[in-house]
Amino acid sequence: MNYNKAIQDYKQLQGHKALQLRAVLFDMDGVLFDSMPYHADAWSKVMTDAGYIFSKEDVYMNEGRTGADTINTASMAQFGKPATAEEIDALCKAKCKVFDTYPPTPRMQGALELVKKVKECGLTPMIVTGSGTPTLLNRIQSNFPGLFDEAHIVTSFNVKRGKPYPDPYLLALEKGGFAPHEAIVVENAPLGVTAGVAAGLFTIAVNTGPLKEEVLTEAGASLVFPSMPALCDEWEKLYQAF
Ligand code: MG
Q: Which CATH number does the domain 3-35+105-241 belong to among 3.50.50.60, 3.40.50.720, 3.40.50.1000, 3.40.50.1110?
């Protein structure tokens, strides 16, 4: 991969004169935690029980949306009307309940090493997630000790509109006091990539799930890596390019 070209293309596209890296905004599910197989299983189970057609692949394609938005999008497509607040609440609770029956989610391989490298470079690591799953959010500090300031974590509880809207990333920039040309995004989901690009950020995709790489490129990712260890191994070269 040609990092310099990817950076040049990004600057041209977004109209930035320079990219002065100060922060790295990490998505959580499928980036920091290897949680997507559990989410896919739990969402497809709960939605199917509620009468929706919702496969595991649908979960991956909707990844990044808030729970409410995921349900509403499916309800509009399949029943022609948004879900009621009661239904959304019940389904989100049922999903979290199923999720909690699984063993504790493992950290994504390579994630701890990469966040440490980012911090050692003097950059600020932040988390920007569409998740509203307390079980996982509560495990951030124990799995990444001393790496993420609580004030630098944006979740589904902080925004009205989740990914693919740019709102969560824009809020992270605001919270951290960064401009779009001072931060980059690490995402695994197509809608997450769309959100990062819409916020004006250089967006790196890591393809940790079952989707084709093209889906991430088409969503606007400047670079696509096959895994977190692959990105971690390349970090020094990439940082040099920035
Ligand atoms: Mg994700």
A: 3.40.50.1000
